[in-house]
Design goal:
- This protein is of the alpha+beta class.
- It has one domain.
- Helix content is 52%, strand content 15%.
- The chain has 3 helices and 2 strands; from the N terminus they run E-E-H-H-H.
- Strands 1-2 form a two-stranded antiparallel sheet.
- Helix 2 packs across helix 3.
- The chain is globular, with a radius of gyration of 13 Å.
Length: 71
């Protein structure tokens, strides 16, 4: 995935996503990206409890924000 800086692609800031991150991004194309929404997706796909899914979702959102993928 390539980070977007001011509506321009920046090929110097490519980041690698794991299978779970790709799943979350693909599934949320029509949804708002929130930790709660992503936690629900994680709970449905993997056998994890809500608190663990919520913590993992928030971590992923933070990583994507730091990389400039999410605002």
């Amino acid at each position: 995935m390539i980070a977007d800086q001011d509506n321009q692609l920046d090929y110097t800031q490519a980041i690698s996503l794991n299978e779970t991150a790709v799943y979350l991004i693909n599934e949320s194309a029509e949804l708002d990206v929130t930790a709660e929404a992503w936690a629900e997706l994680l709970e449905k796909k993997y056998d994890v409890g809500h608190q663990e899914a919520l913590a993992d979702a928030q971590k992923m959102i933070n990583v994507l924000k730091e990389a400039g993928i999410l605002q």
